Amino acid sequence: MAKRSRSKKGLTYAEAGVSIEAGDDAAKRYRALMRRTYGPRVILNDGGFAGKFRLDFNEQLFKKNYRDPVLVSCADGVGSKVLLAKELDVHDTVGIDLVAMNVNDLVVEGAEPLFFLDYVGVHRVVPETAEQIVAGVATGCEIAGCALLGGETAELPEVYAEGEYDLAGFAVGVVELRRATNHERVEPGDVVLGLASDGVHSNGYTLVRSIIRHAKLDLTTPLRELAGSPGFEDDDRPTLGQVLMTPTRIYAGSIVRLDRAYKVKRPITGMAHITGGGLEGNLNRALHDGVDAVVDTKAWTPPPVFDYLRKKGGVDRGEMFRVFNMGIGFTLIVRPAFADSIAARLTRLGEQVSVIGKITKGRGSVKLRHS
């Protein structure tokens, strides 16, 4: 009798490039990180398919209920900064960037951040790296005062190259309708306050990486030109890589606390998160067609990384202001009688505040004055 041949094992998901076991390992690592961000409004739902969050909450537990709540939501990513993270093998800060890019947009509308979800798309799940990324997300949520309810880690070897990944985030907040930001309230005579950035933040990294390649810049050598960079001591000489990986500053906590300080009066007439497009491309979104914002660029000193990049890349100064935040990460438009008190409150909350401009009659544009 002929010997029967043994059947070959069929193709598996792991052989196709996706490891269920690695994904499960990463998910287990996330749980403790997520719990760090939970407050009493989160309803525990371990193993569930979605997160749960109390909105119309128990008045005995919480200080206030919203009478006319409006949900505010947004989505954003960190762009090509993840490529620099891969190159430097630094993955524990881009999660902070991810949260910042979302919650800073959210509070512009007057909203309080409630919860956050993330999406991590990877070539292959490496649990240790995934844990570092989500640890950064959890840290960002703690700073912003919102809960990390869940997310998705997608292993896509056919989409992402070896070692590459991408991030996206989704934030939801709430605002009392009567206190929602309304740019129609902006008037001539209002004052523009600028809150200092912590550097490049998470915009313009395509140009940053082009400058690095063009000038053959070393990311790992300490540089005296970068002394005094935000987050470092004045006598430190950080590397370009360290400065570029400094995470986006999260303004949400300061702005929410500021807003709560004015329960009746509404001295803030507009806000803007200064991201890609710079001051001209973002502050204009806080204006209506009857006003302009005139900004004096000599009113603050940008972090040294901007001048370093400009010189090394031979970039026009106007182009720098079109691409980068240039040292101002968030702006508020306020009634002139409240400008000093609001600046003082924000300073006590840890922000570096400058009076950078004023509102005039106009057509809804931002005019930068460089001299």
Topology (elements, then pairings):
Elements lengths: L12 H4 L3 H16 L6 E2 L8 E2 L15 E9 L3 H8 L5 H15 L3 E11 L4 H18 L2 E9 L9 E12 L14 E6 L8 H11 L24 H5 L7 H10 L6 E6 L4 H5 L8 E6 L7 H10 L3 H7 L4 E7 L4 H10 L4 E9 L4 E4 L2
Parallel strand pairs: 4-5, 9-12
Antiparallel strand pairs: 1-2, 3-6, 4-6, 7-10, 7-11, 8-10, 9-11
Could you explain the architecture of this structure?
This protein has 371 residues and is an alpha+beta fold. It is built from twelve helices and twelve strands. A hairpin with an 8-residue loop joins strand 1 and strand 2. Helix 2 packs parallel to helix 5 and helix 4 runs parallel beside helix 5. The N terminus is likely disordered.
Please name the fourth-level CATH homologous superfamily of the largest domain: PurM-like C-terminal domain
CATH class of the largest domain: Alpha Beta
By oligomeric state, this entry counts as: single chain
Number of structural units classed as domains: 2
CATH architecture of the largest domain: Alpha-Beta Complex
Q: Any idea what the shape is?
A: globular
Distance between the termini: 98 Å
Would you summarize the structure shown here?
The protein has 371 residues and is of the alpha+beta class. The protein has helices at residues 13-16, 20-35, 81-88, 94-108, 127-144, 205-215, 240-244, 252-261, 278-282, 304-313, 317-323, 339-348; strands spanning 42-43, 52-53, 69-77, 112-122, 147-155, 165-176, 191-196, 268-273, 291-296, 328-334, 353-361, 366-369.
